């Protein structure tokens, strides 16, 4: 595994994908795994709080994503996003370096102003965690790679309802487009 590059926090964003109540409490996500992933993401957020790094809390409007499947009958109209971000940093009034992005697709770049927000701040490196490894996290990672961001994906800060899919993406996919690490190894590198 390649060594994590030296990071300039002023050019780094920590992006947390879909850590929201309706997804974390969905069927198929066990409490122990949910707790472990939230703990890892909260450690990252705590470390980056009020530093030069940007913390990006990404939420998905689940109702609008249903419209991506034209062959399915859509039973729920698109409504405003009702999901609540569950990480304390999302509502921390003392945190000065947090932004929120709502996405309507699997990835956090397409159809949002994420790329604009990052480029305005001179960010060239993304640290990525969240749910689901095989969907929102991978789609965002691939877009980040294609947009020439240096990417670090934190394995224990990610999860998928399907453990085999999670393992596949970390064993076969992420190492092709990013550095792969753990929360403890990443924080020890600073």
Explain this structure.
One of its GO terms (molecular function) is hydrolase activity. Belongs to the isochorismatase family. It holds the Pfam family Isochorismatase. InterPro entries: Isochorismatase-like_dom, Isochorismatase-like_hydrls, Isochorismatase-like_sf. The protein has 190 residues and is α/β, with parallel strands linked by helices. It has a single domain, classed as Isochorismatase-like (Rossmann fold, 3-Layer(aba) Sandwich). The protein is built from 7 helices and 6 strands. The protein has a 6-stranded parallel β-sheet. α5 runs parallel beside α6 (163-177). The two termini are 18 Å apart. The mean pLDDT is 91.
Number of domains: 1
Over all CA atoms, what is the radius of gyration? 16 Å
Order of helices and strands: EHHEHEHEHEHEH
Low-confidence parts: none
Which class in CATH terms? Alpha Beta
Terminal Cα span: 18 Å
Coarse structural class:
alpha/beta
Question: How many helices?
Answer: 7
Q: Order of strands across the biggest sheet?
A: 3-2-1-4-5-6
Proportion of residues in extended strands: 15-25%
Query: Sheet with the most strands?
Result: 6 strands, parallel
Mean pLDDT: 91
CATH architecture: 3-Layer(aba) Sandwich
CATH superfamily: Isochorismatase-like
Proportion of residues in helical segments: 25-40%
Would you tell me which CATH topology applies? Rossmann fold
Tertiary shape: globular
Secondary structure tally: strands: 6
């Amino acid at each position: 595994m390649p060594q994590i590059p030296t990071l300039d926090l002023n050019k780094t964003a920590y992006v947390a994908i879909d850590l929201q109540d309706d997804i974390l409490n969905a069927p198929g996500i066990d409490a122990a795994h949910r707790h472990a992933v939230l703990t890892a993401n909260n450690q990252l957020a705590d470390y980056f709080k009020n530093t030069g790094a940007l913390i990006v809390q990404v939420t998905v409007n689940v109702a609008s994503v249903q419209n991506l499947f034209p062959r399915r009958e859509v039973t729920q109209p698109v409504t405003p996003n009702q999901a609540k971000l569950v990480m304390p940093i999302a509502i921390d009034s003392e945190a000065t370096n947090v932004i929120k992005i709502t996405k309507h697709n699997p990835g956090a770049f397409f159809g949002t102003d994420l790329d604009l927000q990052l480029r305005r701040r001179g960010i060239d490196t993304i640290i990525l965690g969240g749910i689901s490894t095989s969907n929102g996290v991978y789609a965002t990672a691939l877009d980040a790679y294609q947009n020439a961001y240096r990417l670090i994906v934190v394995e224990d800060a990610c999860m998928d309802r399907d453990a085999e899919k999670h393992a596949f993406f970390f064993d076969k996919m992420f190492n092709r487009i990013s550095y792969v690490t753990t929360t403890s190894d990443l924080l020890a590198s600073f």
